[in-house]
Amino acid sequence: MSEGFYAAASYSQSMQVAVVTVGDELLVGEVPDTNATWLCQRLAERGANVGRVVTVPDDVSDIAATVSELHDRFDAVVVTGGLGPTQDDVTMAGVAAAFGRSLVEHPDAVAWLEGDSGYSYTDLTDGTADLPEGARCLPNPVGVAPGAVVERVYVLPGVPDEMKAMFDAIVDDFEGEVRHVETVHADEPESALVDRIADAQERFDVAVGSYPGDTVRLKVRSTDPEAASAAAAWLRENVTEDPQR
What we know:
Layout: E1 16-22, H1 24-27, H2 34-46, E2 49-56, H3 60-73, E3 76-80, H4 91-98, E4 103-105, H5 107-114, E5 130-132, E6 136-138, E7 147-150, E8 153-156, H6 160-170, E9 180-186, H7 194-204, E10 207-212, E11 216-222, H8 225-238
Parallel strand pairs: 1-2, 1-3, 3-8
Antiparallel strand pairs: 4-5, 6-7, 7-8, 9-11, 10-11
Helix pairs in contact: 3-4, 7-8
């Protein structure tokens, strides 16, 4: 069984979301991709279902092609990284290209930079207030570079504190059926648990994930808390539990 095996339960009523992280530094392993993990956790808390996580380089054509493809397949796309005044900050240009739009100086971004941001607009690098034409500006509560929403694509900074603060301002845009999670710690080989996992999924209409380590963590997920609880209780009765838990 592969790690993280899931089946049975469906979350078709939930918003389907893709996450795109941008940065050459991510692809060469210089920086861990903590933004993707954090976003997936927050989106799951909202009941949204993340169906894809993609990392792309600081390249306009790669960003444009990825955003265009995911925009056609998902209810929303969250893009993080590559915002700012330096030459490798090309995410806004990539998102604009995905929709065949130009980058233009956005009046709301200018107003925010001149007002609430605490920065002097005249001292900022040219292009700081440029967003895809027709985009909705997202002010940056803890930084300089504004974000944007283009149709259903949300463009956030890559600096973790800035990304988190900006996401908190748009979190209500994401919704779905919240999944309830129960954990069972099995002190058996993962391969020995296959039939009982399948049985639990069939009996209770839940999803069960299997995560091997010192023991095997069985994660039971369902939009119905009673089903998740009942499935976990059944598993505890039918597997050898870790005595340390």
